[in-house]
Amino acid sequence: MPATAPLKKSYYSADRSLSLSQLDMEIISQIVRDLDVAESEKEHYVTGWMGQNSVVLVRNYQDKRGTSNGIVMSRGNRYKLTIQAIIFRIPKFLLWITFRRKPRTMTVIAYNKLGEQATGLQQFMHIQEPELKEQLESDWRELNDYLGMACWQMENNQPLWRQLHEEISPQSLLMQAESAWFNGKKLQKDGECEGLWLHEQFIGRRTGEQAALLLSWKDDENQDIASYLFERVSADKIRVMLRPRKEEKFYPLNPFDAVHLQQALTMFHQAEEALSETQRRA
């Protein structure tokens, strides 16, 4: 991946994060409120991406036991870290009978394996393996950096999101897809796109009105191929998507996915330069 400048953070960072065991209802609920791009009290979910790992913000999830807010981070296809604040649903007359002023609450910090060895949720406090507990604490610190960068983007009018959409136009995608760089070469297929590896990056294209540029690279963490897809949606709109692993689908990036927006823009300009270099030589 190309080197990029450090990104600013607000409220959260790895060096200021609490331990997982110190999290409480208010801290968890505040994180979800800070990144609630939908600004709605209704049940909804927002998926962001920390590297190739999904981060799902859960807002006011309703089930028979009550209301949950929190974060679910999936480390590839290996495991999940779940951080939830739950308010139990208790009828008002029971609150009155039991002299309780507020419903009972609970925080859930849990881990579970995914894939062929999938397991049920295991509470963080009950994990016995020191290495696993430290890994989850490390994940939480990394999540705090992600949250801090995301909050800064949202508080400052989404500068990277706006920059990306200003610098990558639907017309530029049409031009890159028709670049002479692709001519006369035996192109490799990747879904609807076709292209070639150039050094450590795959540059692919889809031509036509729905022109697209596909940029892929080898992701060391997952030992797989990750990709950005830049799509021309209409004459005045583009869409940028992430495919975290070769066999997965593409997911739209969010305005707060700061690192990905920065990397996607940098990689696009590098590919643009490589394609235009061919045009200049022609």
What integer value in Å does the Rg equal? 22 Å
Distance between the termini: 29 Å
| Averaged pLDDT | 90
String of helices and strands = HEEEEHEEHHHEEEEEEEH
Q: How many distinct domains?
A: 2
Residue share in helices? 25-40%
C-alpha geometry? elongated
Output the structural class.
alpha+beta
Compute the number of strand runs.
13
Major sheet description: 7 strands, antiparallel
Poorly predicted regions are: none
Q: Treating each run of at least 4 consecutive H or I residues as one helix, how many helices?
A: 6
**Share of β-strand residues:** 25-35%
**How are strands sequenced across the largest beta sheet?**
7-8-9-10-11-12-13
Attribute tags:
single chain; 282 residues; alpha+beta; 2 domains; seven-stranded antiparallel sheet; six-stranded antiparallel sheet; 6 helices; 29% helix; elongated
Descriptive report:
This protein is α+β, with helices and mostly antiparallel strands. The protein has 2 domains: 20-156, no CATH class; 160-280, no CATH class. The protein has 6 helices and 13 strands. Strands 7-8-9-10-11-12-13 form a 7-stranded antiparallel sheet, covered by helices on one side. The mean pLDDT is 90.
Short description:
The chain has six helices and 13 strands.
Topology of this protein?
Layout: H1 25-34, E1 44-50, E2 53-63, E3 66-75, E4 79-88, H2 92-97, E5 105-113, E6 122-123, H3 130-155, H4 159-167, H5 170-177, E7 188-190, E8 193-198, E9 201-206, E10 212-219, E11 224-234, E12 237-243, E13 251-252, H6 258-281
Antiparallel strand pairs: 1-2, 2-3, 3-4, 4-5, 5-6, 7-8, 8-9, 9-10, 10-11, 11-12, 12-13
